[in-house]
Structures are given as structure tokens and as C-alpha cells.
Amino acid sequence: MKMSDQASPAPKETSALWLQRHRSHDVPWLLQCWQDLARNIPGLTVGSLLKIGEFEVPYFRRSPAPNRPHLYVSAGIHGDEPAASLGLLWWAEESLLNCPCAVTLLPCLNPWGISQNSRYDAYGTDLNRCFDDPRQPLIGAWDRFVDRDRYDVTLCLHEDYDAVGAYCYELPGSDPGVAASIFADGWGDLPLDMRPEIDGMVAHGGVISPRSNLPTTELPEALRLFGRHTPLSLTFETPSEFGLYERAKAQRDFIRGVIQHLSGKSA
Ligand SMILES: [Zn+2]
Known about the structure:
Blueprint: H1 3-6, H2 15-20, H3 27-39, E1 44-52, E2 55-62, E3 70-74, H4 82-95, E4 102-106, H5 111-116, H6 137-146, E5 153-160, E6 167-171, H7 178-184, E7 197-198, E8 201-202, E9 207-208, H8 221-225, E10 233-239, H9 244-266
Parallel strand pairs: 3-4, 3-5, 5-10, 6-9
Antiparallel strand pairs: 1-2, 2-4, 6-10, 7-8
Bound molecules: zinc ion.
């Protein structure tokens, strides 16, 4: 199936038609969409971090170049957060070809979890609490892969069952932060999570910028990346109880916002 014929969400599609064409827990379908897409992007390197069970863990990379900021985006470490993988695919279908940034994309970090609609891997492990443990095969392979680069921004895409709107973790906190400027700049249809406390942390306008008491063990991906591989680590979350179409669209729009931020900085 050519993705451009069957899967690409054209701008005027209705949400129902878009959803009919997307199979968020069908990993072979997701990987085929990425392979089809990659064939049409000059200079995009395609590879695999490792194979876990029947699934490859793919990466897509367009090399850094002078004056071209480097963006890292990952999705799917939690397999029960489908809008993350779909939103990244949606963004890539529309915008990767003409993206002004170097990119490293890891769209399917836990393929078994995605296939089973599970937060965990096949052994019941929450991989996003293991990024300081290279004995985990995925984390060891990821460590070797990311070690080659520095990224101007890293963006980890997630969803949250407790959220009442979209929100973002931003490290380090700055004023005004990147997430706050994206949310202020004509943010789309999905409401922001405006609670003063989210996930036990102080939040302002849908942005959490933890400044202290960061965990030092059982690290999530975003914390492992921060400082070591990037000066700016973002984790974007959409609320799982909202419609899948709106959540995927919000994920796509947030990636767009980050690209705009990076483009503005390099202009
Ligand atoms: Zn998650």
C-alpha cells in the first residue's frame, strides 16, 4: 500500500475518515508507513536500534549540518499512548520533506507495547523508568545510538490518563519557556491542562518546569537526555480520555511549534 494513496491525512479529511485509515496498534502497518515515507525523503538514513522479538525498533535520521538545528523526537515507549506515535507520523507525512532541521526520529520505541496497547514491555517493565540501566537491551542500544550526537532540542511524546488537557514538561525552566510560547501562539482545539498541580508538580498554564528534586535513578528518557545530550528537553503529553484524532493532531501541532522555535533561533 502506498501511504500517499491510503494513509496520508489530507487537510480536508474528516476526523472519522482519518481514523478509519489509521491503525494505531498495528505495528507492521506503522512501520510500513514509515518505510514508505522514508523512500521519498532524500538524505534520510533508516536503521534499527535492535530487534526485540518479532519487531525492529526503527530510527530515521537526517544528519546535522552547519546552521541546521538538530531535533530529536521519540514516541511509543509507552505502548498505550497511541496519539504519540500517530501524531509523529502525521507530522512526518506532512512536513519532514521540507523540515529545516536535522532530525533524529524514534517513532516506535516499544513496539511490543504498542502492539499490545500496554505501557510495559513483554517482561512487564516500564522502559521509561530504565534509561539509566544499559543492561536493558533497548536502553543499551539506545545509549550507543544517541551517544554520537548532541541535540538542540529533544521532544518525547506521551499521553496521560489523568490529564484534563495537553501539557508539557520543560527542562530547564526558562521564562518565557518554549512550551509556553507554543501554547500562547494560537494553540489549537485541544484544551490545555490548566491545573496548578500536575503529576504532583507545580504547573503554570500547562507547563511543568521542575527545578529541583529531579530523580537520579529510574530515569525517564527525557531526564537521561537533559544535560547529557541536549540543553532543552521537552515532554509533551495529551489527555488519553479525549478523542484520538484531536490528540494526534495536538501532537502534530506541538512538533510544528518546536520546529518553528528552532527555525526562528537559526534564522
Ligand atoms: Zn507515557
